[in-house]
Design a protein that fits this description.
The protein has one domain: NAD(P)-binding Rossmann-like Domain (Rossmann fold). The longest helix has 29 residues. The protein is α/β, with parallel strands linked by helices and about 270 residues long. Helix 4 runs parallel beside helix 5. The chain starts with 10 loop residues before the first strand and ends with a helix. The strands form two sheets. A seven-stranded parallel beta sheet has the order 3-2-1-4-5-6-9, with helices on both faces. A two-stranded parallel sheet has the order 7-8. The protein is globular, with a radius of gyration of 18 Å. Helix content is about 50%, strand content about 15%. The structure holds NADP nicotinamide-adenine-dinucleotide phosphate (NAP). NADP nicotinamide-adenine-dinucleotide phosphate (NAP) binds next to helix 1 and helix 6. NADP nicotinamide-adenine-dinucleotide phosphate binds next to helix 1 and helix 6.
């Protein structure tokens, strides 16, 4: 399809579209009439979302299944497919990811590598392969779902915190390099959001945790999160924190009194 056929609706590619925060991004962009590319591993969930959206969304929808841990060659091909759909992508939402529920000493190195593969290398590969096209088109917006775990680590999250700190640093650098190309980078740092993240979290041996934790059962809903951050997403803010008061206080302490935060976190019961 030629670029003219897309009119001026934005073309938005969202990873982790099958669930939680990614699905909320999809629903929000659908309301705006965007053309959408939906990615994650579970093609049945993506197809179901596509058919559920058919009545709401006036944009076109492409289902593009992918595994963020499938490696550079495979992700480069997916990026080419995504771009070829409309010969244009305005927004890439790097959202797909997994968390962790295991103490460092009980965690296999393979599990830590998997967290980094999905959360870091997957997002970096898609961005690395799409950015030359965005540079050529002279515009673009990359949104990354990081976490407050990208700002400070807590127990049971060594690999997850490593992955989110890595993504923060990487996309801060990329933002500076992309400034002259009119491409914006937005890092979204949520606190606990009520999604399937805890059930899907990896335990030490790489199996799914399989349960919903207390922290997330009473947390903010993903659609509410999107409603709150949407004006800032539209304004292409560099970083958006969306969390409850506890995490906001922790972020404040991390910056101004890190010793106090460490003292609190060492004694806290995190699950
Ligand atoms: N919920 C929270 O409290 C919270 C807080 C801070 C940050 N975050 C971040 O928000 C993002 C979305 O998480 P969520 O809370 O919405 O959790 P979720 O409901 O478990 O959704 C995770 C999404 O990532 C996809 N995904 C997982 N592994 C993948 C892989 N190897 N390849 C491709 N896609 C993969 C899943 O789809 P498939 O299973 O279909 O592949 C799913 O769509 C993550 O990056 C997470 O770290 C979440």
């Amino acid at each position: 399809m030629t670029p003219n056929a897309t009119s001026n609706r934005p073309i938005v590619w969202i990873t982790g579209a099958s669930s939680g925060i990614g699905k909320a991004f999809v629903q929000q962009y659908a309301k705006e009439g965007a053309h959408l590319i939906l990615s994650s591993r579970r093609v049945d969930e993506l197809e179901k979302l596509k058919s559920d959206l058919a009545s709401d969304s006036s944009g076109d929808i492409m289902v593009l299944p992918l595994d963020l841990s499938s490696g550079d060659t495979s992700l480069m091909k997916k990026t080419e497919e995504a771009w070829a759909w409309k010969n244009k992508i305005d927004v890439l939402v790097n959202n797909g990811g997994i968390s962790q529920r295991s103490l460092f000493l009980e965690t296999d190195m393979q599990t830590i590598r998997r967290l980094l593969e999905v959360n870091v290398f997957g997002a970096l590969a898609l961005s690395r392969f799409i950015l030359p096209n965005m540079v050529n088109q002279g515009s673009g917006h990359i949104i990354v779902t990081s976490s407050v775990a990208g700002k400070f680590g807590t127990k049971y999250r060594s690999g997850y915190a490593a992955s989110k700190h890595a993504i923060q640093g990487a996309f801060d650098s990329i933002r500076q390099e992309m400034y002259e190309h009119n491409i914006d980078i937005t890092l979204v740092c949520p606190g606990p959001i009520k999604t399937a993240i805890t059930q899907n979290s990896l335990t030490g041996d790489g199996q799914a945790f399989g349960k919903m934790g207390d922290l997330h059962t009473h947390a903010m809903d993903a659609n509410e999160m999107l409603r709150r951050i949407w004006p800032k997403i539209r304004a292409r803010k560099e970083e958006i924190i969306v969390s409850g008061p506890k995490e906001r206080l922790a972020l404040y302490l991390k910056r101004l009194a890190p010793g106090i935060l460490n003292r609190i976190l060492k004694r806290s019961k995190v699950v």
